[in-house]
Specification:
alpha+beta; 51 strands; 1316 residues; globular
Amino acid sequence: ILFYLNGARVAIETPDLDQTLLQYLRSTGLTGTKLGCGEGGCGACTVMVSRYDPLEHRIIHASVNACLCPLYTIDGKHVITVEGLGTTKNPHPVQERIALLHGSQCGFCTPGFVMSLYTLLRNNPSPSELEIEECFDGNLCRCTGYRPILDAAKTFAEDAWKPGAVVRPDGSATAGPRAEGAGGCGVDGCCRLAPKPEPASESAAAEQGVGGCCGAKANGGCCRDAKREDCAAASNEAAREKAEVISRFQQYDASRELIFPPFLIRYAKGNTSAAPDDVPRLPLSIASSNPASWCQQFYRPLTLDDLLAVLQQHPQAKLVAGNSEVGVEMRLKKAKFPVQVYIGDIPDLQLITESPDHVTFGANITLERFARTLDGLVSAHGVERTQSFAALRDNLRFFAGNQIRNVATIAGNIATASPISDLNPVFMAAGATVVLASAGGGRRRVPMSEFFLGYRRTAMQPSEVIYAVSVPFTADGEIVRAFKQAKRRDDDIAIVTCGLRVRLNRQTNAVEEAAFAYGGMAPTTVLATKAMECAVGGVWGEPKLLNQLLQAVQEQLRLDFAVPGGMAEYRTTLAISFLYKFWALSCRALQIDCLEASAADEMQDDAAERVLCKGKQEYASVTDRAIVGKGVAHLSALRQTTGEARYIDDMPAVAGELYMALVLSPHAHARIVSVDAEPALSIAGVHRVLTARDVPGTNLWNIFHDEEILPTDEVHYAGQPVALVLADTQRVAQEAARAVQVVYDELPAVLTVRDAVAQGSLFAEERVLRNGDVDAALAQSDCVLSGESYCGAQEHFYLETMASITVPKGEGDEFDIYASTQNPTEAQMVCAEVLGIPASQVVCHVKRMGGGFGGKESRSVLLAAFTTLAAYHTNKPVRIMLDRDEDMRTSGQRHPFLGRWTVGVSRDGRIQALRMQVYSNGGFSHDLSIGVLERAVSHVDNCYRIPATEIVGRVCRTNTQSNTAFRSFGGCQGMFLLESMLCEVADHLGKSVEDLRALNMYRANDVTPFSQKLDDWNVPLMWDQLSTSAQYAERRKAVDEFNGKSRFRKRGLALLPTKFGISFGVKHLNQGMALVHIYMDGSVLVAHGGTEMGQGLHTKMAQIAAETLDLPLSSIFISETATNTAANTSPTAASASSDLNGYAVYNACKTLADRLRPYRERMSTEPFAKIARTAYLDRCSLTAAGHYATPDIGFDWQKNQGQLYFYFTQGVAIAEVELDTLTGAHTTHRVDIMMDVGKSLNKALDIGQIEGAFAQGQGWTTSEEFLYFPKGPLFTQGPGNYKIPSALDIPRDFRVSLLEGVEYKTLRTIYSSKGI
């Protein structure tokens, strides 16, 4: 195969037929393209694939999921990866803007976002803001909350921040002149854009063009002087910083991009010359040279006749076009297709022909081209004749993501016969016909209504292919609509989808024809025939007919409770609701006067006219510090946007390296009868299979030592690693892991909190907070209510899955571990214990993580232990990076919580007493569950004074993964239990829950249930400030008015406070350390105990070092976190790492600054490098260690005494959401957040953490749902069925501000900052 890669020609004589484009790229060292899921659901692997289309006579640039793209499909194409755009020293404008506008945090997803935006610009150098938002519908980010990515991308919009643009303090922008050098600096009221007085002389004229921004305004001074009262940006440093960054952007010049190689145009046309390197394009037939390959024979025909001939020879061959279905089957279901045929280069299957009564679409046109064609047909023929085309186009907008639509085809969607297909119900309702072709039978036409025979079965015969699909134009009196409901609007499989069509006699409105086709309601796409029969002959618009139709759909499409996919009642309700919506919309379109038509506006999908996302960030300028507090971009951001940033699996393979695969238990609870490794060991390339008996040291780990490294006798959850397989490659190792034969004796399993409580399956520990006489307070309360609240699990979904490499040093038992972990010291200690060697012989290194969120605090340690155990036995380097499904099956999640409560309140709503029993699902072992429980119990009060409390917490033992730390570490679950209880109390009392919150809110110096006085208490202040700035009262009135007028759409408006205690619950963890070296050239190397996972910790530490040493930030470098430079570290968790490590860095730097002060005073005019060298020559130590321990911390749960938290990070938020009560679809219209983060170390980074945390919480409470099969295996194993928010789910109006101007009387943190 022949292709171009980043402008260079590549020819591969015998390609690996099992290899994906992603695997090939990474094998060549192009590791900027990442593996995030392996199923085309996250976009981390996005690259641009360009090709010349001889039918359209143009070059097509397409964003593509490299993880699903077989290498053999890129013959004749040009692949551009993130490395092909630019470097850190010379970045592409896309890379520069995403980096400098804070669009990259952990950075693992960033190359995918870069490539999606880059591809859009290659197709359209001046896109609209809507096109920019939608170009990311196939990309996921777990860190940023998307807002800064969208902000950066929109600088390329046709009406965006070009040179001369003005960014106002509220974050809005207007375009300025595009002429080079003619624009302003980006600050509203820029001097360059203001009239200037005539200069008095030539020298004055020369001076007017320099100095700060541009010289002087008419009234003197410069717009960049934020101290000037007339500067519009002075009140909002966030806007000023953004404008300043934008003003320095390099201009985007599309003419400077890599060209599409001219040879590939000739190659695609078949016009190659006789020159030696101008090879012709030929049909391909490649046999695998590896007998173990899953694909043994590959064909690439160039004509339909060639394809049919191949199918006659191989009737069971698997046809591949976009590979979006086949690739997922191979990865997740381990399906093997020995003969594969790529049909993407056959022009005969891509023809589009138009007839008077129908349009025939070539079966193998991509969905992207299909959508463009449909748009053209609607525009050319008008709405009436193209109703079916418009309906297909509507559903295509939410069909997968751009990367899938760019390669997936009509035929692929039809042939897979998915019961939840987005398009097949619309095709069926429209009366479409499938045209089949075969070598012997010519063409055969099958109505779509007869094409699907059962689950994944069609009317196609062996050796037949789908040649085309014919879709008729619609006639007068005909209405077609499509509907779809999914957990997430974009890039999500349907729960229920449908295509609905009626044709009426326009004189009588009698129904002449009806087709109601549904997906998600049967094993295949199905017609609601009873409703169709009922409709024909009836009068459309008559209430009686509507009732009959809805009843018929309910009866025919009723689902059993145990139906695959679950949600039986909801799915039936959706089927009915869609028909009701169709009735209303069609009646309005046909001007039929009925009650439902008057509510048609409420039936329209929100996305029909999607509101663009906008954001506002607000904070004041920092005047008392040079570097700390400034909105400095993440120091690794440019490395992340250019693909230069290295993660664990990006590290080059070490000579002799082995890959490790896990043998996982299929049972939730079972006794291990036997393990037979011989079938695995007989596979070529397999070196060793390790089990519990191969552990030389201790086989127990975690805080309570109640979990085995590898199980000896029993497995306790489905997905538990039972054995480790070591082989030459990942493919061989995973194949061998599936060959290991384990015999189990299945045992009873406990899977849920409620089951555990009912069966008494609880860990022994109990956490109790008692204050006052609860029984007496309840007896004296005016109202006593009882109930329960529940919140579910949440997957961390860090984009970089768990990964570890262990390298033996070759002498003695010394090992270097490179791990994606938040807890390098724990990894070091556990690995040493497993091997029975001193910890001093093990060094754990952490450069960065592609996200963590608590998920890599403890569970990552197990993977490091596995690779270290394997390296010990083989004396070879060992690597593993979990596949997404393995990561989700083996690691723990956010703890589900159940709260059973009794509350007493007064008539006016004051809480008098609370008794709550709190249960968490800890999984099969303790892990960190007691700490999570403690934080949950201590956050049940949230921000409210409750005079009498009895809060009792227990951890349930279940046969699920051992649940673990997750952002807020139980705090949000505790608050949720209380807040949901308050909502029930408010409903019962007939009061606003916001009024109850305000009435019961803590005041300064109140005492919490855990005996802590509230100092520096700013929640009431923020409550008042945000209520005013966000116009809560006015919006409350508007929402109430909307709900009074709207029957089917309702809006909610919530105002909510939070407090979050900062400190580890375990006292000894509240310490940090740092080691700082100043070198003779004046550069500074900082090592500290915290790890970088995207939160910007290293950036903040560098800012502290630069500020303390009075050096520019560029002088400070942080390489990694390692246990040989930062020993005995605490995990990077609990939002305390900036406090602990920041003060340690400060203390070390302060020591050095004090040592160098005499030299600096004596050499005040000399550069720092000369000062450092002079000090060294004077034998002054240029190395210092720093340590910090949080003072006054320590809490006794038995006595309810001591200080549990050092301080509280506080916040208030307002959220406005609209709900479609017919379907459950919702839109978050606006969110306002104000946070008290003290005197921030980096305000821009803190804003990013707030936005990212909100998006994560939004997912937890809306789209993210953990589902298990009845016997315990996990159902939600990847982005295909576990849905985190996408860029188009975040609030349409997202406003975040930091509390400013308050005095902190008791806060004793580094620079008076707070953890976030």
